[in-house]
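Protein chain data
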Amino acid sequence: MVKVVFRSIPWVIPNYANRCFSKSFTTRKTVETAKQIRSLVDEGKIKEAVEFYESQGKKSDYRTLYESLHKLQSDDSKEVLKQLNNADNTEDSDIFNTNIFFSDSVEQAKEIYDKIEEDKKDPNTYDALIAVYLKCENNEDAYKTLEQAIKSEVKVKQKTIKRIIDAFVEDNDIKEAEKVLRLCASYCIEPGTTIYNVVLGGIIKTGDHESAKRLFELMGPDKNKDTFLIMLKNHLQREDQKSVDALLKEFLTETDVKDPLSSVIETYVEQSKHESVKALLETVEEKYGIKVQEKHKNLVQIQNT
């Protein structure tokens, strides 16, 4: 068993006020430090890894140390992780957020979480706790934790909202994913286009095309290239030419996407709509005012080969 005495982990930070390192040197040094920590842990040199971490005096390397120990899963690494979890670190959010994030169970995560004073619970803390719930396939409590955070006026991160929606969509539980969107809307939180796209793709996967169309329209100007291509792929698969035409008109003439025609061609070919894409190229200039370039023709040929 490795017994490590933590002298400075992780709250005593040296004073670098009189050291004038360039940004590039500092970045390189950080990368090298992280690499050395990982290497020592991988070799089973747990005590040496901790001592090296301490000698650097940078709490930004704490996550590297913790993650490496967690990945190793040896008796010695587990013992050191236990010491880290039991350390009095509630004054440093980065540290206890890391401890929560890599917890192996909801119980362990909540035990760490409950040590934190209420005013110390920042968005990253909620994100870490929710990540553990989802890892343990407890989506319902993840949602309740998100709801608690939002009602407590915590500025929840988009990545946290996306974590939960991704989990619901992966389980084909679109109603719960939509419930997350409604929760955000009721508190004037904008989930972001990426999250809407995840839900849109999930709805299409269930075969509820009318709901997909409604969400597509509701997104308004927030639609991006991926949004259009998700819907285009859906319309092509269903051979809904009327919807294809309406979507192409909006995508090719009303968006600021760079070279949208190339994206359309790639989507057509991906769906094996080779004859349809040839017909499109013959009419695209007349219909949408887009001149077909040699690269567009080549793209069709390359995709066909």
